[in-house]
UniProtKB/TrEMBL annotation:
Signal peptide: 1-20
Alphabetical keyword list: Signal
Segments traversing the membrane: none
Keyword Protein biosynthesis annotated: no
Name of the protein: ABC transporter substrate-binding protein
Segments of this protein annotated with the region Disordered: 28-51
Pfam families documented for this protein: SBP_bac_1
Low complexity bias: start-end ranges: 28-47
Amino acid sequence: MRKFSFMLTALLAFVLVATACSGNNGANTPANNNNTTTPPANNASEPPAEEDITQKKVTISVYYPTPDRVEDRALEDDKIRRFNEVFPNVEIVKSDWQYNPSEIGIKMGANEAPTLFNTYASEGKFLAEKGWAADITELFNNYEFKDQMNPVLQDLFMVDGRIYGIAQQGYPTGVVVNKKMLDEKGVAIPPYNWTWDDMLQAAQAVADPDAGISGIAPMGRTNDAGWNWTNFLFTAGGDIQQVVDGKVTAIFNSEAGLKALEYYNKLKWEANAIPQDWALNWGDAVGAFAQGRTAMVIAGPDGPVDQALNQGGMRLEDILVYPIPAYEQGGKHYGVLGGDFLVINPNATKDEQEIAFHYATFDYFSDKGLESLERNIQDRKNENKYFVPAVLQYYKADSEYGQKVTELFKKYDNVYQYNQETLSLIDGKPESQYNTQDYYGAMTNVIQEVFSKQGVNMQEQLDSAAKFMQEKFYDTIQP
């Protein structure tokens, strides 16, 4: 685990060691008939040593959690305090801007984006190609723990061999199930190695539309709807786009895409298993799960589990985390690979970028970071709350640090532990390289058509969305 002393050691690695150069084009000249070497000429220059970054006044603005995330804000405040103990020369400004793909261009153009801002897994290539993420390859390659970073996450922000972001935590999308609701209805608990049919049958059996209870709440508005549906596209064997020799082609209107859309149609019109008011975004769907109004929700598992335990008052034993169901027995349990990343503003100065990198990784592999994590768990326990870790972390699970975190989690009964069978089955698949959010939006329109009108021609809807993506976005991408 990294101690604070590492920070200073890492900084010293950037300092060039000055070496003396001999004069007279490197020739040794006899002087006074002896063999001494002529000293360097007065005008010989030595490469200047770089300034010590710990002694320079630097101001950076950093991503700060939203007001509703009280515990996360407390953790960030503690991190800022500890960072300033090591870097008293740095002023840290808290930024309340939350990344939005429709706002980032405006923020960059107005030079209002924070020095260090948050983003999500789909945005790496987009930000890199727009020039809105700093190339941090040199900083990363000089990072002591680069080889212990989790490549499943970190590689999502590697574009053409260059690095544009720092992984924080992530997940393959899964399904969170309220076991108590199934038990009360006498519905058999599905196996973890389940299929689409298993999910549909369980959702249909537990749903009670007259009581406002749904078996599953697939998201139906904002880009969240397209994101949810893509898990079924993947498990059916499909993909979003194909890239050949730089040419991007929409392929989500494939046979696999049709199967996934027909499955959504079944959930709505045959099983009557989704909410009557299906126009839910992430917050709505996760909130419905925490309140016991739906038995299943599709998401990165930690969010729904946290809300169900800490806001919904559910018990640990009533919450089960499943992988996305396979299309058929023996198939893959692909979940859209998502996560949280930090990006450094390319408009920041070299010093600001370097400090931002140190701030982003300050607690990584650190004893102090582990102590802060344990205090957070203890504080939650004192408040009768649970700590719910993300499925994937920035570090390799089998690393020395990863093992220390695992042992820490085992010490506390208020830490949610993911089922090992789920972890062995769940499989992440990265999002598309280009225009991911635009694609999600296009598919949201299709899903809303299917949910609002019975008998929609689903292939036509998929073809129309693919045509839109192709002409509006993919055809503009230069090979």
